[in-house]
Amino acid sequence: MSSVCSLLLQVVVATLSCSVFNAQISCRNEAGDPVEWFVFYKLPRRRVLEEGSGVEYMYLDSEGPVWHRSRFLINSSQGAVAETLNQIYKGQAYRSNSSVYAFYNDGPPVLDYVKGFGHSKGVLLFDDSQGFWLSHSVPHFPSFPERGYIYPSSGKVNGQTGLCVTYGYDQFIHIAQQLAFVYPRFYNCSVPPAFVSDLPELVQLCGGIKPPLDKDKSVKFLFSTRWTKFISFVKSERFVDDIYTGWAAQVLGVDLLVQSWQRQGHDLPSNCSLPEHTMNIKRVRLPGSVLFLSEHDHSKWCMSESYGDDWTCLGDLNRERAQLWRGGGLICLYNYQLHQAFREAVDWYIGC
């Protein structure tokens, strides 16, 4: 074979390989390309130094864990969140028998609020190879599949966060088992017959049935498609305690700084009584002099207070009394750059 033909063959193979990789279900970055994981931080409208639009967001991912302001708006059809969810909307995965999808939110779009479900919000989409789990803090989001990508106007006011991770198929079996503890409100989902035997918990959850549990909480390792290890903490309503103070901080062995939405009179104070402390963040500062108070931030995240411990978690629950009795979870990653990005975002917290 001539060198020219050999070169052409290599180009064709590389092109086909790239096309196959791009066709796989995964989290998508700002350009719409596959990415192992990403975090978005939707900025609140009300800020200390300026008034925002309510649809701007910060972004970082596994390829570059440093905050930068997205050139897109979260209510547009471009950007990481839209590109990821458009695999359902534009790809019409909800009409396919070759993939599973599930939308859950304790405050779903259009439907009335119903008590009894876990305080949790997210999206699953995967086939028998791989897919993504996007967990987030935005009420009334995302929209039903047949409506296409719509960001709710109610989601403009407060800050919001979300974490997307690309997992192999076997990890979604563990994820479904973890979600059984949370008992999220699934408002739209599909588990085709080929997946039913592997995912009995997800089938029950999609049907509004609470799977039986033999304990009140669970912790599991989850591995991304590139073998990055995440830790999933989930609790049922039977574990009546603050997930940050009574569990995660003690298991991780670190003092935690926690950002969560706390309504006045319902909030839990910083806790310094246990071996590992939990302290409330009161003001957040992101690059570009973006400064805002926690009372305008509906996001839920935490990280170890000390540099060098490098734990960062994103999750479902606020540090509020009522949420001691709610199901919910945290997804944690030990990563120096991610921890640094969040740790440097803490402008003021109530310490011990």
From TrEMBL:
GO terms for biological process: apoptotic DNA fragmentation. It comes from Acanthochromis polyacanthus (spiny chromis). Pfam families: DNase_II (PF03265). Its EC number is 3.1.22.1. It catalyses: Endonucleolytic cleavage to nucleoside 3'-phosphates and 3'-phosphooligonucleotide end-products. This is deoxyribonuclease II. Keywords: Hydrolase, Signal. Residues 1-23 form the signal peptide. Belongs to the DNase II family. The keyword Amino-acid biosynthesis does not apply. One of its GO terms (molecular function) is deoxyribonuclease II activity. It is an enzyme of class 3 (hydrolase). PANTHER family: DEOXYRIBONUCLEASE II (PTHR10858), DEOXYRIBONUCLEASE-2-BETA (PTHR10858:SF2).
